[in-house]
């Protein structure tokens, strides 16, 4: 294999691998978001399709089952793009078919065709299927474009672009570019589709990171020299404390500063400044103070609970973190505190 071939293999295979990883991230990230699930499934289908292309390009004698799986995955790219766009535009419930039925019909059709006409025994027929799959993909791209018309019109009026805009735009345009790459592969090269996917994936990641960095920098500058008044700080802290007590947000082991800021209806820099200047505490210490108070109550009132269960109920990721944090706040171990208060 020449150096150029090795470079092509590395770039295209890395794109497929990163596609699998990003797909898993969007699918399992919390809180659960249906749009993210559709995006994850679309990326998964893309990654399977790209991996099949890479394997076939460098080894045309690969097992026909792999070719069938890759083309079947391609069949679902367009539908998941459409469902993702419908979900982002809040049009999912307005579609003629419920999304569950939509997917079920497509899945049953593809499985039935694959079972009756396996690639291994019907290679020429799958050549026809391949063209049909590409046109189905194009149809869903056009349907997605119709859904996104209000989004496109809104983009012309917006001066700033957030990462959600970038992802939606990149997903849609990326589909068009990769579809064109595969559709025109007979005039260019079969590997162009895989390389296009890698390029779009990396470019989207770079743009998202750049926009996010600029947004954080702008927010930091906005609040850097702006002192929160005593009355405003007192009001916000009372609201925050009440929310923490009533909703018991501290019990969420994955609670983050951005999540809490969103609940409170303020920016991340604002909340950070509020805690640092007025509570003289970091975000982690502020949250842990509620967790430790809850742990104290459980240690005294629930004698049968193990330390592991108490740690879990109070929002700690591990028992060791619970021990170290408890000792930091009370200068005692949980066991000693329980024994002294029996």
From TrEMBL:
Keyword Transcription regulation in annotation: yes
Ranges of residues in domain HTH araC/xylS-type: 234-340
Gene Ontology molecular function, alphabetical: DNA-binding transcription factor activity; sequence-specific DNA binding
Entry keyword annotation includes Iron: no
InterPro entries in the cross-refs: Homeodomain-like_sf, HTH_AraC, Lambda_DNA-bd_dom_sf
Keyword terms of this UniProt record: Coiled coil, DNA-binding, Membrane, Transcription, Transcription regulation, Transmembrane, Transmembrane helix
Regions annotated as coiled coil: 216-250
Pfam families per the UniProt record, alphabetical: HTH_18 (PF12833)
Transmembrane segments: 6-28, 65-87, 99-119, 125-145, 166-184, 190-211
Protein name, as recorded: Helix-turn-helix domain-containing protein
